[in-house]
């Protein structure tokens, strides 16, 4: 229609208080309608975009006033007319599927970003927004081993081959030593409510059964069985029975000593503080032992613990047997579903985090399954993985930013 114009305004320059107010006041005075607006700030440098609709008889006055005001504010301004067919095509794309792609590591390099965006482009997706989730990176980051960097891409469109895209990302993350997550941006992604963790080699940097075995003098034998089970080479239930049998005669007092000296995974304190403050329900679903799960529950305020119970004889020593059903991979999956029902949430609102082959069933069942510093077999089958930073990296896959999760 000839009586209206669509104008895209791009402002750039040094950010300053009141700039957006001064410019939008001009638009308001002339009755312009803002169709879209976006702003970003990098090191005090502003980039502001405004797409507006106005009466063509007023457009000249609007542009003239904006030109004078931006000159006064010492920022640059560019104007361009947007054809209505281009605008309508842009509006039509808003119904397309949106994906969130998250990359993280100790640091993010230009090559990692370049290769990630190349895959995005090859799949025919368009990047709508790029956001840094971590805090500002210090220049001496090499001297700070616990630094982390995370960037989130919001992309729109239908991938040519979603599975191939996922596989390309996983291969890229392995080659360039960083982590990458691909999630469809559904309503459930923003409303996760239950997160279930494996314990050994996930919440803690050890396998407790190996620690117990060392105290019993059968460490090497038990470790060999543990590693084989975690790689998925032997059945978990059979390996569990064999390992527990080797602990026969161990004094129960040893468990307290081990619990008080558990090596806690990097980032767990921060992760649990943020999750609990944000209203998440948390659970430990472990093929390990309830004694240690309950120790972590008390220390970090977990809501649920399900693990295996060691049988203790009247002499205060382990009998080499267990009590009740074994918490294996199948049981972990069942417990995840059960807890979702108890909490009255959709299974898509659940998260599972684990490292071993017996975690795969719950990782695949959860709305978001994350392999954490996992064995190769597990990483190969999981949709998401974290291998380069601590367990608080889970927060970035949930969309949290450092600016509002400081603890």
How would you briefly describe this protein structure?
This protein has helices at residues 19-29, 56-72, 84-92, 110-122, 162-176, 208-216, 219-230, 236-245, 253-259, 268-277, 290-300, 329-342, 360-365, 376-381, 394-397, and strands at 4-14, 33-42, 45-55, 76-81, 98-105, 126-132, 149-156, 179-184, 194-197, 281-289, 304-312, 318-323, 350-354, 368-372, 384-386. By secondary structure, it is of the alpha/beta class.
Structural class: alpha/beta
**Count of distinct structural domains:** 3
Query: pLDDT average, as an integer?
Result: 90
Rg from alpha-carbon coordinates: 27 Å
Structure overview:
With 407 residues, the protein is an alpha/beta fold. The chain folds into three domains: 89 residues, Alpha-Beta Plaits, CATH 3.30.70.260; 90 residues, ACT domain (Alpha-Beta Plaits, 2-Layer Sandwich), CATH 3.30.70.260; 156 residues, Rossmann fold, CATH 3.40.50.1000. Helix content is 38%, strand content 27%. It is built from 15 helices and 15 strands. The strands form three sheets. Strands 12-11-10-9-13-14-15 form a seven-stranded mixed sheet. Strands 2-3-1-4 form a four-stranded antiparallel sheet, covered by helices on one side. A four-stranded antiparallel sheet has the order 6-7-5-8. Helix 11 links the parallel strand 10 and strand 11. Helix 1 runs antiparallel to helix 2 and helix 6 runs antiparallel to helix 7. It is elongated, with a radius of gyration of 27 Å.
